[in-house]
Amino acid sequence: MVIKRLTIIFFLLLFLGEARSQKPLIDSSVYGKWADIGDGRPAISNNGKFFLYSVNNYSFGKNMLIIREIYGNWSKQTPGINESNVTFSADSRLALWIQGKDSLAILRLGTDSTEFLPNVLSFKISKPSQNGQWIAMQLSRPAKKIILKNLSTGRQQDYDSVLDYTFRDNDGEIILQRDTMAGTSKLHKLDWIDPEHAEIKTIWVGQNAVGYVFDKSGNQLAFVVHDQVDSNTVNSIWYYRAGMQRAENLINDHDVKVANATFAQYGDLHFDQSSDNKLFFSIRVAAAKKNLNYKHEEFSVDVWNYNDERLQTRQMEEAKQRSSSGAAYTASIHLDNKKIILLTSGLERVVDNSYSDLDQSVVVTNETSGVDGFLNPYGDPSYWLVSTQTGLRKLLKEHPGYQIYFSPMRKYIVYWDTNRRSFIIYNRSNRQYKFIGKPVSGLLEDHTAGEAKIWDFGIAGWTKDDNFIMVYDQYDIWQLDPDGIKAPVNITKGYGRKHHVILRLTDMQSSPESIVQPDKNLVLWAFDPLTKDNGFYEMKTGHLPELLTMGPFVYHLGYRSEGAEWVYFPFSPIKAGNAEVYIVKRQAANQAPNYFATGDFKNFRALSNLEPQKNYNWLSTELVTWKMPDGNPSQGILYKPENFNPKNKYPVIIYMYEQLSDGLNLFITPDWSNGTMDIPTYVSHGYLVFAPDIHYHLGEASRSIVNAVVSGAKMISRYPWVDSSRMAVHGHSFGGYDVNCLITHTGIFAAAAESAGPSDLVSEYGSVSFGGKSLQKSCETGQNRLGATLWQRPDRYINNSPVFRIDKITTPLLIMQNKEDDAVPFFHGMELFTGLRRLGKKAWMLQYDGSGHAVDGKAATKDFTIRLAQFFDHYLKAAPPPRWMTEGVPAKEKGYLSKTDLDTSDNQP
């Protein structure tokens, strides 16, 4: 009843009385029902002729699978199927998926022919081989039956009593676990089947096998067996190599002893990817039982010791995580002599997921090194090389300040050293360190975020055989010699810096540990930070990058250093396996994301055509530039309604979070607010929204915020259609901190709302998060950018803490702060609110039970959306205040009365 009433009030407050535009205004009826292609995983057939994707909320909240011809008119639509569950056959003739609960749909691409095979619970497809591609189908009736079928030839084989199945990684051979009898005992067996030659080889008989894993050649298999012996589970790891008669038992419970704890379970098997002579596995150790011989005291006490490696709060949190499942360890076993080496302990983990034992060692890291944040303000992990022969460990690097990467062949380990501000390479063969890129290291340093630590711009990948590493500067791509002998080479020839265009390899070609082929044509994604245009370039060997397409769209944007995580659109082009056909996703602020096909990145063919925004009074974006008081330029986004009329006077909400202007052309889907504001809804209802960039200076975050935002507000106030008396500010998280700093330095805003924003950095420095972690790191080297301890620069902590200037606030403030926030502790909101209350200043605070850094859950987000809109409507549109603002909501009425109805008694908050 309360929810229904809230919804009705929300419609009345936000959406009634504003239907003057030709198109309907955006309202809550579209939240969660907006038709879009989402963040899905579309697929393209190997021949480049067919494409599949799904549309969320295609109609009445239902999803739709669409498979279509790329350069033709054929298409097929199927409701209720998600694209991630559909597979193209390797020969590009078929698309397959499970329809309903137990029906396999086989669509012949380009036709209306769909074959439905009943009683199919699941299916798996092998990798293609010269004899075709096989599909394994598990039936519901008759139960435990598997059908193997060659998709190319139609050849079929049936197998009964199958419990589990998995294809070998590199062809159509398959492992089946099946029921069998040994006398009167019912057991299981593993059959290795070559369907092409109809050969079956039983490699194991026992009780229960799980977790099959092959080596990279597909000739070695390992798996875990759980046996029941006298009501106890006995665990073991088994090994099989092609040519052996039967699998052999490598190790069992009795072979593994860890810290005198009880062994619980094996898992996470990995073959050594460099030599295949070792097997890595994890050990789950049950939590240690309390010593019952200890005398139980009448009190319980936490003993904090300055030598503790972790704060008591972190130890307690970790103990909770381990209480149900126990601690995890990683070990290796030599396949020739069955020698077991324990590689990790406690909360450590193996870093290299490929488990390449190139130099007979693996890299291990911990969560924090030695001590927690209050003794180690940087709190960064350390890394060790742990011998797989002896278990001895050697420190690779303590507190590198960044994660480490491996070259594709695993010859080198590389990381950015924040102290030396250089890439450091560790050669695993000669065990030497090298500083690389020093002649150009200044170009590789990212100073744009204004943080205490200076990071790099990222690693693009490596050339063949680990000969060179490819790294980025702010604009271009460099080739560095990992041995530090050959001089750095700018492979984009300085084109990016000269033309002020950021050039990056697309993700389909690169990652920090992938192989790049600079001797072949490379497609680069490009971004102009001045105009915000996005597009693609091509780079041919020995030539300058060549423009393919650029425009006011977003095709692909990676994380930017400014920390504005929502300025992120990571869809990299996908390529057909055997054709020069690519799929891109394109959007603009007033164009919903859609898929396009291209062969040259110059000409694009639309494959989807979703434009739900055309049905509503949508928005447009405008890039504005101005000079700040310090003389430096800044940029921001001005959002205007589609029905904008320059003769009107508009209220303005300034929304802040680091630097957002790179998102000029991003499409924002309307939704309930979880701490941030929904820009399309507010703009649709007659607000202007302004998002200015904030350029932070070390130790001067508060001054930087005022410098950027106030100057930006004054700039847009000069427009004749802006009502400067009706301007407000809003932000979430660090954007909430922006709000808190602003209103303690200026009174030009009519209202302010902040969600989960810091207010007291002095208190924060000595406190822990909801999850028990020290917050010193965030103060010194994180977004707060103080760059010093509290004792080194107490002035920075005080000057950048809004709580010390509460008496200067004249702006009505709405705070949202939750008790379970694990990023910004609850006391930040409480200190701010109680201080304002003590001084008799207008303030309200919302706290949502069960929510953390953001409002969580549909009912809570609806409530916050309503209250935030009511707050702004009252102060910026002179709407009557709701009763929760004039009367409050007593604790005894919590959960029963929302008081979001309007107060018509002329009471003012």
Keywords:
globular, 8-stranded mixed β-sheet, disordered N terminus, mainly beta, 909 residues, 13 helices, 4-stranded antiparallel β-sheet, single chain
Q: What's the N-to-C terminus distance?
A: 26 Å
Q: Indicate the radius of gyration in whole angstroms.
A: 31 Å
Mean pLDDT: 87
| Uncertain residue ranges | 1-21, 260-264, 561-566
* Counted beta strands: 54
Structural class: mainly beta
Give the overall silhouette.
globular
Describe this structure in words.
The protein has 909 residues and is mainly β. Helix content is 13%, strand content 34%. The protein has an 8-stranded mixed β-sheet with strand order 47-48-50-49-51-52-53-54, sandwiched between helices. A 4-stranded antiparallel β-sheet has the order 1-2-3-4, with no helix packed on it. The protein has a 4-stranded antiparallel β-sheet with strand order 5-6-7-8, with no helix packed on it. Strand 43 (574-575) and strand 44 (582-588) form a beta hairpin. The radius of gyration is 31 Å and the shape is globular. Mean pLDDT is 87; it is low at 1-21, 260-264 and 561-566.
